Every structure is written in C-alpha cells, then in structure tokens.
Amino acid sequence: MTTYPLILIPFVTVTLIVTLATARRPRFARRMAWSALAAVGLLALTAVFDNVMIAVGLFTYPEVHLSGIRVGLAPIEDFAYPLCAAFLVPAVATLLERPER
Length: 101
Hints:
Elements: H1 3-21, H2 28-55, E1 70-71, E2 74-75, H3 80-96
Antiparallel strand pairs: 1-2
Helix pairs in contact: 1-3, 2-3
GO molecular function: intramolecular lyase activity; lycopene beta cyclase activity
InterPro entries: Lycopene_cyclase_dom
Membrane topology: Multi-pass membrane protein
C-alpha cells in the first residue's frame, strides 16, 4: 500500500484551495512567480540534502509505503512538502493581510 502519496493528498489539496482563494487579491501573478522561484530553490535543496541524508543512513523509507518514483535516493513524495510550502505560506500571508484603506 502506498501510504506516503495518500498522506500528501490533504497537504496538496489545502495548498491548492488556499492559493486559489488568493487569485483575486492584488499581485497574484507576481506572487505566483516568486512562489515558483522559491519552489525551484526548495526543490533543489531537497534533492541535494535528502539524497545526502539518505546516503549516509540518517533515515530510510519502507519501500511498501512509497510510490516507487525516486530522484536519486529520495522518494518523489519528499518533494511535495517544499512545493506546498512555497505556495501555501505566501497565500496564507496574503489572506492574513489587512486590507488597504
């Protein structure tokens, strides 16, 4: 049973909903561009450091719980969290902003 991909569903769903809830707010396109740039950086860092940590034996993943897709040694599921963070954090911050007068 692929448990880790199922765990990601709520995170990805919340990220999509909250990000789309900010679509009518000012500077949405600019925020998405910056989020995409942040996502690229976070994904690159995840690829490097997850592979290093797995290679030196800091942690492992039970194969039965993974999708089987890997980037080096890192399971693809590890990349969803930084991707969600890159879009969710700015979206939440936008929703919490006080409206301009």
